[in-house]
Amino acid sequence: MQGEQPFDRQFGDLTVTQLVVMAGLPAAGKSTIAEIIGARLGATVVSVDPIESAILRAGIDADQPTGLAAYLVAEEIAQKELDSGRTVIVDAVNAAEAARLQWRDLAARADVRLRVIEVVCSDEALHRARLAKREGRMPHYEETTWRAVEQSLEGYAPWSGPSSALPRVTVDSVHPLGSNVEAALAFIAS
């Protein structure tokens, strides 16, 4: 019709497909922020935890590398969505350099922009309280204990080496959720 703008102009620059990667310790607030951002952007959220839960539900022993398998399945799902032109948000701890570089390499293969949003919780009491409120959300998936969070912290690699060059913003979940979401969205748009 006369006077109507093309679809991509009506809604701004939504045609830019991106890979947004969440990173941070369990119960820091990654999933909450990922889900809100996903809804706001109309992006596909690919979460590693439910994938690992499904692997365990299928009868694969927990002593097998189910975490690695879950990351690889998440990568395949993300690749398919990116290839379809959809922005993807990957919700995972991404504690290791190899995991971080997995997403860098996926973004390069898919020729999309990469953004990393690291979520921390600088208040240990608040972090513990959030962890305690988590309920058994996924069958066959062992809920995270505070000791497991501490172990994750011990294994959480510093952002050095090649991962230090990834475009990344850090938000602290002691701040209001709305402020963190807006900071993340501003970073994604930058």
Give a verbal description of the structure.
With 190 residues, this protein is α/β, with parallel strands linked by helices. The protein has a single domain, classed as P-loop containing nucleotide triphosphate hydrolases (Rossmann fold). Helix content is 48%, strand content 14%. The protein has a 5-stranded parallel β-sheet with strand order 2-3-1-4-5, with helices on both faces. It is globular, with a radius of gyration of 17 Å. The two termini are 33 Å apart. The N terminus is likely disordered.
Q: Could you give a short description of this structure?
A:
With 190 residues, the protein is an alpha/beta fold. It has 8 helices and 5 strands.
Fold-level CATH name: Rossmann fold
What fraction of residues sit in β-strands?
Answer: 5-15%
Q: Alpha-carbon distance between the termini? A: 33 Å
Helix fraction bin? 40-55%
Strand tally is 5
The shape, in one word, is globular
Please state how the strands of the largest beta sheet are arranged side by side: 2-3-1-4-5
- Major sheet, described briefly? 5 strands, parallel
What count of structural domains? 1
